[in-house]
Design the sequence.
């Protein structure tokens, strides 16, 4: 029996120029992490807000996001959004008019993403994964409004990280009325009976109707602990 060498088995041709370009991308990725860590480390406490980029300023979810961000900002929380239009703009706009920083983590996309004008601190990312780390690393809470694939991606990301204890337990708050009913019912009626999640995992998030509900839920969570992660939690976050 002939045994192929590793070189023979992994012999897909790669042009030298392409390989060099891929290798140098590591430094570009590193620069995004370094800038994000340095510029966001002093933004505490903060709340990350997510939702659709497609809602205009007359949409009920836009107005709800703006009101929630304003109350959070006036309550002492920096507000972090994706920096683009729709719910992201609403979140930055509400925070911009309040007393705490409005932060935008902008991503370069072929469409839909244009930086909104309501940002005290604006960072630009090429890579989704670097940007997603920044949303999690310094967040004291997540607020999730109606949205599409990107919003659901961020929601599932934080649920997974909390469930697997790769980050500390933080409030994960859903807003937007019955928008979430179908998803929550599916989790409860399909995933739990299938054994792919535990019934207790449904308690990792809660639905809030009003901006005041959001702020109260966050303060209740931190009633007996600091907003700053503990030394043990900071150590865990090094492996995000």
Sequence:
């Amino acid at each position: 029996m002939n045994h192929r060498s590793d070189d023979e088995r992994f012999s897909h041709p790669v042009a030298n120029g392409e390989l060099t370009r891929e290798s140098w991308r590591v430094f570009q990725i590193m620069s995004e992490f370094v800038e994000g860590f340095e510029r966001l480390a002093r933004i505490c406490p903060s709340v990350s807000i997510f939702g659709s980029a497609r809602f205009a300023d007359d949409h009920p979810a836009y107005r709800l996001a703006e009101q929630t961000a304003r109350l959070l900002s006036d309550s002492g929380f920096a507000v972090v959004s994706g920096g683009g239009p729709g719910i992201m703009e609403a979140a930055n706009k509400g925070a911009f008019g309040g007393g705490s920083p409005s932060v935008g983590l902008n991503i370069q996309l072929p469409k839909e993403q244009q930086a909104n004008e309501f940002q005290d601190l604006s960072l630009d990312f090429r890579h989704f994964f670097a940007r997603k780390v920044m949303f999690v690393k310094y967040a004291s809470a997540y607020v999730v409004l109606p949205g599409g694939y990107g919003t659901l991606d961020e929601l599932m990301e934080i649920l997974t990280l909390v469930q697997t204890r790769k980050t500390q337990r933080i409030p994960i708050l859903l807003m937007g009325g019955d928008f979430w009913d179908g998803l929550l019912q599916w989790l409860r009626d399909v995933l739990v009976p299938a054994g792919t999640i535990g019934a207790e995992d449904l308690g990792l998030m809660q639905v809030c109707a009003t901006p005041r509900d959001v702020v109260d839920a966050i303060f209740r969570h931190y009633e007996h602990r600091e907003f700053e992660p503990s030394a043990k939690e900071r150590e865990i976050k090094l492996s995000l």
Remarks:
- The domain at 30-237 is CATH 3.40.50.450 (Rossmann fold).
